[in-house]
Amino acid sequence: MAITEYEKEGKKFYKVYVNIRGKDNKRIRVQKAIYDILTLSQALKEEKRLIKEVTGKVLKLEGKGLLWKEVMYRWELAAKKGMINTQMNYHTILDHVARLERYTSSWLEKTASDISRSDGRNVLINAKALGLSDSLINKIKSSINLVFIWGIEEGFIQGNLTNSKGPVYGLGFESSEEKIKPILTLEEVRKFLFEAKLRNHPWYPIWAFALLTGMRSGELMALLWEDVDLDNNIIRVSKSFNKRTKNIKCPKNGTWRNVDVNGQLKNLLIELRRERPNDTHVLPHFSEWKNGFAGEVLRRFLLSIGINKEVVFHTLRACFATHLLSQGVEPLKVMRMGGWSDLKTFQIYLRMSGVDVKGITAGYSLLPSQNDLENVYLIRS
């Protein structure tokens, strides 16, 4: 760094020259010069400005000066090109970026290497204050960890993070009080299907299918007649419709499975085949279903028959699992037919059905019987 004086066409000028190398990587070098400065005081000011500018460029080249938004942008580009460790579809990538833009907005203009655990904790505190669900907060944490760790691995982020785990790694809050998810009782399910059939509701076969099989909404929508084997009373579930991409994909857990066809479901299938002989899809497709409003249609009909519960379409799957378990069907069989691979998730239905505690106190007798009391009365009298 230097200020030099020179003459040009009989006039005195100053030149400012700045040359800075990387602190950790000496091969990184940035230099810049400004000529024809009229005064020394102006040259001194230009020197300070130039040092700051060049230092910033060196830091960026070393990966220490990238802003959080710049790391996010690079991650997004890499993810779309399939250049990150985890393969993701286009919409999942956009979901991660949207979450980060919304919930880490205070970081966007901040140097990524300077983001601390305190910053991470503040993001989670603010998310909790907004009333976000524990599930969404965990998704925010996952998005931050995903991009931050990638930035560290690629050398875009360096600095003061303990064990280079990221600003929210290991941070968490006690979950808010767990609420019991509303489901339909067995009596309500029977009333619901009776009224839907009686009124010839167009969604009746979809609702009945969901309650008899436990299949997910996308799996029901993708079901073809070629997947149905009425001779062996089996349905092969091997695909699912993605409402966001409008494409067919694998089921949620990534594997195909078989679904048992009981007598009622078989009659329903025969009826559907008779009514729609030329369709390749088993169930009718409605615009509300394709566009994500199946829950609204369900709630509206339930309300019309006097059942006022905040249910969603997925509630029908929960009813399937809960009521089968209540009737004594083995949990492993219910999991296999419904396509649950995560036992932790399935525990919810075990608890809702009461199977996990049913019969525990059957032999736990404490209260006096009527005969015991009568014997005491006789003796005392």
Taking the alpha carbons of the first and last residues, their distance comes to 113 Å
Number of helices: 15
Q: Beta-strand level of the residues, as a percent range?
A: 5-15%
Q: What helical percentage do the residues reach?
A: 40-55%
Q: Which fold name corresponds to the CATH topology of the largest domain?
A: hpI Integrase, Chain A
Number of strands: 8
Number of domains: 3
Structural class per helix/strand content?
A: mainly alpha
Class of the largest domain in CATH? Mainly Alpha
Mean pLDDT: 87
Shape by Cα distribution:
elongated
Biggest β-sheet: strands ordered side by side in the sheet: 1-2-3
CATH homology group of the largest domain: Intergrase catalytic core
Task: Describe this protein's structure.
- By secondary structure, the protein is mainly α.
- The protein folds into three domains: 2-62; 68-164, DNA polymerase, domain 1 (Orthogonal Bundle); 186-353, hpI Integrase, Chain A (Orthogonal Bundle).
- Helix content is 48%, strand content 11%.
- It contains 15 helices and eight strands.
- It has helices at residues 40-62, 68-80, 90-103, 117-129, 134-153, 186-198, 204-213, 217-222, 263-275, 287-290, 294-304, 315-326, 331-338, 343-353, 370-380; strands at 2-8, 11-21, 29-37, 228-229, 234-237, 240-242, 247-249, 257-260.
- It has a three-stranded antiparallel β-sheet with strand order 1-2-3, with helices on one face.
- The chain is elongated, with a radius of gyration of 33 Å.
- The chain starts with a strand and ends with a helix.
- The model has no long low-confidence stretch (mean pLDDT 87).
